[in-house]
Structures are given as structure tokens and as C-alpha cells.
Amino acid sequence: MSVFRLTVRSVVREAEGVLGLLLADPEGADLPPWEPGAHLEVTLPSGAVRHYSLCGDPGDRGAYRLGVLREPAGRGGSEEVHASVGPGTVLGVRGPFNRFPLVPAERYLFVAGGIGITPLLPMVRSLPPGSWSLLYGGRSLASMAYREELAGLPGVTLVPQDTEGLLDLDAALGGLPPSTAVYCCGPEGLLRAVEERWEGALHTERFGAAASDGSEGSSGGFEVELRRSGRTVRVEPGRSLLDAVREVVPGVAYSCEEGWCGTCETKVLAGTPEHHDSVLGEEERAAGTSMMICVGRSRGPRLTLDL
Ligand code: FES
Predict the structure, then answer these.
(1) Domain limit, last residue, from 35, 69, 97
(2) Nearest C-alpha to atom 4 of ligand 1 is from which residue?
(3) Of 10, 20, 54, 252, which one has the greatest count of Cβ atoms within 10 A?
(4) Best substitution site from 249, 254, 285, 290 to test ligand 1's pocket, by max atoms within 8 Å of Cβ?
(5) Would you state the torsion angle of the CA atoms of residues 170, 261, 2, 253, taken in this order, to the nearest 10 degrees?
(6) Which of 245, 249, 266, 292 should be mutated for ligand 1, with most atoms under 8 A from CB?
(7) Distance, CA 228 to ligand 1 centroid (Å)?
(8) Boundaries of domain holding 189
(9) How does residue 218 score in pLDDT terms, banded at 50, 70 and 90?
(10) Number of domains in the chain
(11) Distance between CA 21 and CA 2 in Å, rounded?
(12) What average pLDDT does this structure show over 251-263?
């Protein structure tokens, strides 16, 4: 899918630390359609590539709406958006992609932590009232984006941590019929907590921190053979596999570098990968035939990749 250019039409403050961007075609053309859960890959003016969920109305083909949380401890993309993206800024865009689609279900529970509300907002808007409920936790009420929009919808519970503490997941998940589709988006800790408590259908989208497969792996270095390139390189401890691969294959595809976008998925021809991504499902991890090389490593001394 090729990159196209969109212009920032407006920037508004959605909450403390959260900017809302509206992106539109510079000539006013209709934008590619999307469904709730979709995201865009955005190339910022500095060249940094970031992924943002679409949180507007899929019926509005004239603009894409994004919500961007300022993360001072992040890799700089959100800081760039907050400091220097304004009306008229031109951004490179790929997508929309959807790795988090809304599946048909009789009943839904949505659990959002902080900026994780963004993909869930168009989901709840697209469903009939009474078929879903949303539990939305944030640091404080002031930091919770879209709370006014949500206030008008039945089934929404806002839980600001500073006055009400953490989300009561035991109560929310405890009595649910197992046929409920549970969707969760937010920080790793919240996703883990939901995973531990819910055995039914669970749909998650992680931002930032990558997940480990929980196994002991090679904390030391290992060798990686790049079969098609005919080269073998060493991955030293503390260095990513992706970095080592780029030495030999500078054009290798990657984007988030955090194990959640799926761009760097690579076929494993031999060896046992140690997964740290949040893209592959349990069976795919166990099969060990592909891996995200931005965060994955090797469980043995050698790995052979189809690169
Ligand atoms: Fe995104 Fe590896 S670059 S999963």
C-alpha cells in the first residue's frame, strides 16, 4: 500500500496531554474507507513513523480523526506532534489498516485505559445501545479524552484513578456471560489484568510496551543466518535483532519497533524464536515459523531467517 499525503485541517486539545488531529485530503477528495478498530501509519515531518487509531466517524469520508497522547518518556513522535504539528502540516499516511476489528457478538464489554479509548470510541458508537458497556479508566478526569462525547452514551463508566482508584475488573468481568466479546486497549498492565481474569473471547490492542512470551530465553548473544542474503551476523546482548539484520538488509520493512504493528514479521527457517511481540497468537508463537524481528530474539545459539 503506498503512502499518500494528508493535510492537518485542525488541532484541538481533547484532554490534558491529548491533542485531537483532523487530517484531510489537500484537494478535498474522499478518504479511503475504514472500520472501527482501524489505524493509520503516519510519517511525521521528521521522518518518524507512528501508528494512530482512527477515532472519528467512519461515515465521514472527508476527514480522519486521531488522538495523540503526549508521552515525554516516549521515542519522540508524540512530542513532535504536540510541539510542531499544526493546521496545514502535511503528513505521509499509509492505511487504514485493521488488526483490531469488531467481531459480531450478542454482547460486548469494552475496557479502555487512557489513550486506549481511541479505537474503542468508534466501536461503541457503531453498536446498538444496550448491547455493550464501556469501562474507561484514566489518571484523572481531566486527562480522559472524549469523556464529554461518551457522557451522552448509555453504558459508559468513567473511572478516574485519582478519585476512584483502579478499574474494578473482577466486578466487571465476574458475572459476564462467556459469549461476551471483551475488547481491551490500554497499557500492558491493564491488558494483562484482563487476560488473567477473562477466559472467553478477548480482543486486545497494545500500545507501546511489547509482551514477552514469559519464557527464559537467550539473554546473551546469538547468531542469525540470513539465508537469502547468504550472510550470518551476530546479535550481541542489548542489541536488537532488527538492528543486526539492517546491517545486511538495509531496506528490511519495520515500523513501530515495539512489537505491535506486524510490519517486520519474518519467516523463521531454522532455530527457535523467543517472542516478545503482541502480534502473534499463542498457536503462532508455539509454531515458531515467523517472528517480529524488532523485539524477538533466539532461544538457541542460532536462528535462520528468510531474508
Ligand atoms: Fe512493528 Fe516489528 S516493527 S512489530
Answers:
(1) 97
(2) 259
(3) 54
(4) 254
(5) 180
(6) 292
(7) 21
(8) 108-205
(9) very low
(10) 3
(11) 22
(12) 84
Enumerate residues lining ligand 1, CB below 6 A.
254-257, 259-264, 277, 279, 292, 294
Domain CATH for 282: 3.10.20.30
- Which CATH number belongs to the domain containing residue 197 in this structure? 3.40.50.80
Q: Does residue 222 register a pLDDT over 70?
A: yes
Please give the grid coordinates belonging to residue 79: 512530542
Rg of the chain (C-alpha set): 20
Q: How confident is the model at residue 47 (pLDDT cuts 50, 70, 90)?
A: confident
- If asked whether residues 241 and 177 sit together in one domain, one would say no
pLDDT confidence of residue 207: 64
**Is there a domain that residue 15 lies in?**
yes
Are 11 and 80 found together in one domain?
A: yes
Q: How many other C-beta atoms are found inside a 10 Å radius of the C-beta of residue 7?
A: 16
pLDDT category at 51 given cuts 50, 70, 90 is: confident
In a domain, 181, yes or no: yes
Q: Which atom of ligand 1 is nearest to the CA of 292?
A: 2
Same domain for 13 and 43, yes or no, is yes
User: What's the CA gap between 252 and 264, in Å, rounded?
Assistant: 8
Residue 170 lies in a domain: yes
- At residue 157, the pLDDT reads 96
| Cis before 96? omega within 30 | yes
pLDDT at 1: 62
Q: Specify if 212 maps to a domain.
A: no
pLDDT (tens digit, 9 = 90+) per residue, 136-170?
A: 999 999 999 999 999 889 999 999 999 999 999 99
Supply angle C-alpha 180, 118, 155, rounded to 5.
Answer: 45
